[in-house]
Each structure stands twice: as structure tokens, then as C-alpha cells.
Amino acid sequence: MTGRLPPPRLVWQAPPQSNPHPAAPPPERMDLTKAPDPHAQMPLFGAEPDRHPDGIRRLYRGDNLDVMRLLMPEFAGKIDLIYVDPPFCTGSDFEVHATATDAVPGTKVGQAFRDSWPGGVNGYLDMMLPRLQMMHALLSETGSMYLHIDPTVSHYLKIILDEVFGAASFQREIIWRIGWISGFKSVARNWIRNHDVILYYVRTPGRFTFNRERLPHPEGYMRRKAARQTVVSSGRPIDDVWNASPSERDLKGAESLDSIQIKSFSREKTGYATQKNESLLARIIRASSNPGDLVADFFCGSGTTAVVAERLGRQWIACDIGEAAIRLSLERLRSAGQLSEDDATPRYSS
């Protein structure tokens, strides 16, 4: 037998069994022009309004599968970048805690989400498959998708993504080093887990947006060009292992790629259990979209993707099923001065 073997195919013993949120209400679009009232229901646009003349900026509360179905007639093949940080199938409940700026930091103030699935991993994969299929359909021909996950289920999800996108659409498995090791992690009788996995796929292999960035070399660095010549390099290209090089580990404050969860006094911290860094999202959004492009996050959590997309001049769509996630997203967008409370037409900040 000669020639290349055909690509493997994913064979399910049974199709997805059920909606993981059978009691979820219909998707509702949040009103971005009114301050959230802690004593009332979530503020809503009553009906689906037209897109705003200066850009699409939409925040939905609801099951993301329902939200994507709602978006499909308008946005199929039109989203330039999707980043999602779904549950990791841990079997745990995740909470929202008071931050260092609150009166009693560290206290529980609400539930973020429940990461338990009927049938365990099988039920979790049943949940993920139709959502990944819908995301693929929403991506533009030059679009990219980043799936942020941990090593527990990343290998299962890569096989599913190969099936949905095609194996040739896989670009990189990015390893994000979470940061320094301390606390309960350091006492494990095992190698200490210190990374997440980000699976990077594109809709069309060979035709996708990618803006290459470089990290600065240490001061005084000179690259050898020839035996008697040296040339100053413009910087080191970023590889697929993040937050591990000396130049990245030297980043401080908001620029640091260390997980927000281990930065006890960061002003960026919201108390949401699975919040990700703005610096992490900024790297992804700058690399895989251009100003004015449309970015989406269908597991938006505390709203980091929308906040960073807005700041970088991208349009955005975000959604989550959790009330805590929606409240935090609204608060973060407004506190950053990126949403107007008096103008019914949201606008980009300068």
C-alpha cells in the first residue's frame, strides 16, 4: 500500500443526548446603556435592535447554544476571531469571591458556575460538540478560534476539533505557564501542574489573519550575523510556550502573563473563579484580528474578552449563562469608561 493514510474519523457510540441546561431561559441581550440594579432583574433590550453604526457590541445572557442559533442568520461566516474558555470538566462548583479592595476580601459572594455533567466526561463532550460545530459555522473564511482548556480534557477536545474543523486547520497547541508555584499546589506528591492548554484552529488553512509580534531581547543583546559583524535584532518571535521565557517572566503588573488568580492584589481581579488575564487576551486579539474586526466569546465569564476587544478597537459579541458573569461583565465595561450610561448608542472609547 502506498500513499498517505486517510485522516482518522471520530466515531461516537451515541449522539449528544440532551441539553445540559434544560431549564435555561431564552437568550436575552443585555442593555449596555443602563447601570445594573442589584435589586432588580438583569437589564435587557426588549427586542433585538439593529447593529450600532459605529460597531457591534453585544452581551447576551443565556445558554450559548441558543445564543449562537439566534446569531446564525446574521453572523454565519462573519466572526473574525472566537476565544472560548469553557468549563474544564472538573466536577467542581466555582464561586465569586470578594477581592482585595472589598471590605472582607476572600469571602464568597456568589456562585459562578457548576462544572458537573451527567455522564461525566461523555456528558461534557456531548455538551461541547454542538457548540464547537456552531462556532465553526460562525467563523469567517479568514477567522481563527482559540479554545482555552486544561490537560485533563484537551486531548479529547482536539480530536473533536479535528473532526469539526478538519485536521489541516489545526495550527498550534499553545502552552500557557500559569506562574509561580505556591500554596496547596506545592505539596502534591507528583509533578506540579503549572500550565493550561490553548488549542488554536483556523477556518481556512493558509488564509487567515495573523499579526506576528516579537518580544524584546535583553538590553544590550546583539545577534551574530557573520564572523566579524553583528546586527541588532528587532526582538524574539513569540513561540507556542507562553510566559516561560526570561523576557516574559520579567513583565510586571498588568503586562505580566502570570495568572490573575495568583496576583493577590491586582486591580484587574474581579473575584470570578476562572477569570483570565487581560494581557493574555490582548496577545491573542492583536495576533488574530485587526482593528474593526468582530471578536466573540461564548463562555465570557467575567468579560475579559469583551473588555480587551473594546480597548483594542474591535467589535465584539459575548455571552454567558450565569448572572454573576453578566453582572461582572457589565460592571467592568462601565468602570473602564467603555460604555455610556447616558447615550443609547454605545461608542468606542478614544
Question: Element order, helices and strands?
Answer: EEHEEEHEHEEEEEEEHHEHEH
How are strands sequenced across the largest beta sheet? Answer: 1-2-15-14-3-6-8-7-13
Mean pLDDT: 77
Based on CA atoms alone, the radius of gyration comes out at: 21 Å
Categorize the overall geometry: globular
Kindly state the percentage of residues in helix.
10-25%
Q: Please report the number of helical segments.
A: 7
Which residues sit in consecutive blocks of at least 5 with pLDDT less than 50? 36-52, 97-108, 340-350
Strand segment tally: 15
Helix- and strand-based class?
alpha/beta
Describe this structure in words.
The structure is a single chain. The protein is of the alpha/beta class and 350 residues long. The chain has seven helices and 15 strands. A nine-stranded mixed β-sheet has the order 1-2-15-14-3-6-8-7-13, with helices on both faces. Helix 6 links the parallel strand 14 and strand 15. Helix 2 packs parallel to helix 3 and helix 5 crosses helix 6. 33% of the residues are buried.
